[in-house]
Amino acid sequence: MTETGDGHERHGDEHERQDTHEDTGRDTDRDVREAGHRAAREQAIERAWRDLVATARRSAADGLVVGTSGNVSVRVGDLVLVTPSGVPYDRLTPEDTVAVDLDGRQVIGRLKPTSELPMHLEVYRNADAGAVVHTHAVHATAVSTLVPELPLIHYMAADFGGPVRVAPYAMYGTDALAENMVRALRGRTGCLLQNHGTVTHAATLDKAYDRTAQLEWMCRLWLTASSVPGHAPTLLSRQQVRDVEQRLKGYGQPG
Hints:
By secondary structure, the protein is α+β, with helices and mostly antiparallel strands. It has helices spanning 12-61, 117-126, 138-144, 175-185, 205-226, 238-248; strands at residues 2-3, 9-10, 71-76, 79-82, 99-101, 106-108, 131-135, 166-167, 190-193, 197-202. The strands form two sheets. Strands 6-5-4-3-7-10-9-8 form an eight-stranded mixed beta sheet, with helices on both faces. Strands 1-2 form a two-stranded antiparallel ribbon. It starts with a strand and ends in a 7-residue tail after the last helix.
């Protein structure tokens, strides 16, 4: 505080110091919040990558893929974590994390993303999905060569939104394949890729993988039943499947 020539006290310098202190405090608080957000995001990415690798390894252990075939992705905010191209799943480490934005630009990692990246990105652009699983499951791939959609052999077709369609063949890794897949997925949570394999999506990796396993099982069931000479399997009607779809909404434990 200073005194002017007319005897009045001047508080300007003190007010300026106080304002500077308040601004510094706000900046510090903002920096702390931003650091917290960054740390939380990094932890979410680490967890998602761990789960992604575990799911990819599970698909190999369960015989849904062979070698480095198939791929898995999971969304974390505006990022999509994907398995890298041509790398055995048992060799993947946290340092191998690969992530792209929704336009396909790589933002994390040194390894090249899966060749099926266009297919994964199209799912996220066209569906409210948190994870995508693509496999070369044997029975499902066999069915994809025989019919335009999997016959309604079991009521769990309801979990896919109805009869599971077959997307027409296109070369792997192409936009044409991604476009065919998107059409087959309309109103569905999974489809078959002709002479290729399966694609499923869900809110979580666990659910997407469960749908993949269910789809392979249903394909195996239909192939088994339809192979009995002199007999044709009974099929469910679309209305029967729609009825199950409503009931499945309350399936499992609450919460």
